[in-house]
Each structure stands twice: as C-alpha cells, then as structure tokens.
Design brief:
149 residues, alpha+beta, 4-stranded antiparallel beta sheet, 4 helices
C-alpha cells in the first residue's frame, strides 16, 4: 500500500471540508430562525473563510438567516454587520457641522460607520447626500453579507 502524497492529502482534506460546509450551515437557518445577526459558531468557520477569502481567526464574523439561507458577514474597518442607519439626522454629524461649518464632508468618526449616506455641512447644518451602498430587503448592507451554504 502506498502512502498518499502531501499535496494529494491536502486537496482531499480541502474537498471534504467544502462538502461539510452545507451541513454546518443548513441547521442554523431552519424554518422560523431569527434574521438577527449572531456570532458565528466555529462550525461555520471553514465556509466563512472560503466565502470571504480569509485565513486565520474569524472572531468578528456573524451569521444571520434570510429566506432560509445562511448569510455571513465579517466586521472590519467600515464593514458593519448590523442594520444600516437610515436616519437623516445624526447628532454626531450635527455637532461636527457646528464645529466645522461648511465642511464638504463629515467623517465616519462623527456619523458612525453604519449610516447609508454621505454627509456634508451646509453652513452649520448637517445634510445627508447620496446613499453610499445598496441595502438588502431586511436593511443590511447587501455587499457585506455573503451566502455560506
């Protein structure tokens, strides 16, 4: 009997993990499961790494259910995983404009990273501009969530 080569064993293990991913994701979003984001369990780690092209720790990963599918999001700089803020009046933006009247933009440090708008100051008043990214039907930033089935 011949021992399997290291590259072949690696490919075999990778293929088996790929086949295991749907089984890990499927029970999480059984009928009636909540659509609120929750911390991703370790069982989803391989599928999340593949979906986002990551290696290593996925400590900032969340999953939620949508239409019977399991979706995942990994937080990062300017990558919110919770519902988008659709408000057209933000206290942080208002304060920024009082202190920086006429500014062409308001930084996310003042608006928060979850706002759907670009912001600027019209004199001392904060004004929302165009929407920065599309939302899904449930109000999350669509491009931040990927299926992990």
């Amino acid at each position: 009997m011949t021992a399997l080569s290291v590259p072949f064993r690696s490919a075999l293990i990778s293929a088996l993990l790929t086949l295991a991913a749907p089984a890990a994701a499927a029970p999480l979003c059984a009928s009636g499961a909540s659509s609120a984001p929750r911390a991703a369990p370790a069982s989803l780690a391989p599928a999340i790494r593949r979906a986002f092209g990551l290696s290593g720790d996925i400590g900032g990963a969340y999953y939620r259910c949508s239409g019977g599918r399991t979706l995942a999001c990994v937080t990062g700089a300017n990558l919110p995983c919770f519902k988008a803020n659709r408000s057209r009046a933000l206290p942080g933006a208002a304060q920024y404009c009082r202190e920086n009247p006429g500014s062409d933009f308001i930084p996310m440090a003042a608006t928060g990273h979850d706002t759907i708008y670009e912001w600027k100051c019209a004199g001392k008043k904060a004004r929302p501009g165009k929407q920065v990214a599309p939302l899904d039907a449930e109000g999350y930033f669509a491009e931040n969530w990927k299926p992990v089935e």
